[in-house]
Amino acid sequence: MIIGFIGVGKMATAIINGLNKSSHRIIISGSSLARSRQIAEELEVEAAASHQELVENADLIILGIKPQMFDKVLTDLNFHQPIMSMAAGVTLERLASLTSADLPLIRIMPNLNAQILKSTTGLCTNDKVSEDLLVIAKEITDSFGTTVELAEKDFDTFTALAGSSPAYIALFIEALAKAGVKNGLSKQVALTIATQTVLATAENLSLGSDSPHDLIDKVCSPGGTTIAGLMDLERTGLTHSVASSIDTTIAKAKKL
Ligand SMILES: NC(=O)c1ccc[n+]([C@@H]2O[C@H](COP(=O)([O-])OP(=O)(O)OC[C@H]3O[C@@H](n4cnc5c(N)ncnc54)[C@H](OP(=O)(O)O)[C@@H]3O)[C@@H](O)[C@H]2O)c1
C-alpha cells in the first residue's frame, strides 16, 4: 500500500519510524517542497512534488498537520482515498466536512511514547470504514505501539488517560526522586531508582496476573513501612487528586 503523509513533524516522524519496518511505500508532503525533500532524505522515504500529487498517488492519507492548519491545507485537495487524522480535537464530523462525507475516515490519538514506538493510541472510525480497512489501520497504529479502539465520545477521556498522563506520570517520578534527594540521595541516583521502579511495576502489572490492588497487598506487610506510607498518601488524597486532574483535563478538552 502507498501511504501518503501531509505534514511531517514530531508525531508523523515517530509514526513513519514505526511504518518503515513494514512493507508499505511511504510518500510525504511537508510545508514546502524543500522541506519535503529534506525530511524524505532524513527518513528514507519519498517526497511528493505537491500535496495534490501525493493525494493522486496514495492509497491512504495520514494527516500530520496541526489542527489549526486543517482549513487552509485540506480545502483545495480532491481526496479519493481513506484518510487518517491524528489531530487533537478534530472530530470525524469536522474531518468529513473538510474532505468528503463519502470517504472512510479514521481518527487516532497517539501519545508521546510513539517516539520509542510504544504509543498507546486511541482509534475510532466513521461507518464507511470496512473490516479490512480497520485491520490495516490497526496494523499501522500497532507499528508504533498499542491500539485501543473506542467510541469517539470517549476520545476526550482517552486523551486525558493516555495523551496527558505521560506528563502526570513524569511528575510522580520527579516527586519520588525529589523525596530521595530530600533524604540524602543524589538527584541522578534517585531518578534512576524512581524511573526503573515505575517501569518495572508497570511491566509487572502488564505481564503478570496481579491487579494493582493485589500488588499493593503484596507489598504492604501488616504493621509495616509501606502501609504507613500508603495511608499517608491517601490522607493527602492521591486517588482524589489524580481523578480530579483527569476530570479537569477532560473538561478543558471539551472546551477546545
Ligand atoms: N506531539 C504530540 O504529542 C501529539 C500527540 C497527539 C496528537 N498530536 C497531533 O499530531 C499532529 C502533529 O503534531 P506534532 O506535534 O507532530 O506537530 P509538529 O511537529 O509541529 O508538526 C506539524 C508539521 O506540519 C508541517 N506543516 C506546516 N504547514 C504545513 C502545510 N501547509 N502543509 C504540510 N505540512 C505543513 C510543519 O512543517 P514545518 O516544520 O516545515 O513548519 C510540521 O512539520 C497535530 O494535529 C497534533 O494535534 C500530537
From TrEMBL:
InterPro entries: 6-PGluconate_DH-like_C_sf, NAD(P)-bd_dom_sf, P5C_Rdtase_cat_N, P5CR-like_CS, P5CR_dimer, Pyrroline-COOH_reductase. GO terms for biological process: L-proline biosynthetic process. It is found in: Cytoplasm. GO terms for molecular function: pyrroline-5-carboxylate reductase activity. It comes from the Bacteria. Residues 3-86 form the Pyrroline-5-carboxylate reductase catalytic N-terminal domain. It comes from Streptococcus thermophilus (strain ATCC BAA-250 / LMG 18311). Keywords: Amino-acid biosynthesis, Cytoplasm, NADP, Oxidoreductase, Proline biosynthesis. It holds the Pfam family P5CR_dimer. It is an enzyme of class 1 (oxidoreductase). This is Pyrroline-5-carboxylate reductase. Pathway: Amino-acid biosynthesis; L-proline biosynthesis; L-proline from L-glutamate 5-semialdehyde: step 1/1. Its EC number is 1.5.1.2. GO terms for cellular component: cytoplasm. Its main location: cytoplasm. NADP(+) binds at I6, G7, V8, G9, K10, M11. It catalyses: L-proline + NADP(+) = (S)-1-pyrroline-5-carboxylate + NADPH + 2 H(+); L-proline + NAD(+) = (S)-1-pyrroline-5-carboxylate + NADH + 2 H(+). The lineage of its organism: Bacteria, Bacillati, Bacillota, Bacilli, Lactobacillales. Belongs to the pyrroline-5-carboxylate reductase family. The keyword Thylakoid does not apply. Gene3D superfamilies: NAD(P)-binding Rossmann-like Domain, ProC C-terminal domain-like. SUPFAM superfamilies: 6-phosphogluconate dehydrogenase C-terminal domain-like, NAD(P)-binding Rossmann-fold domains.
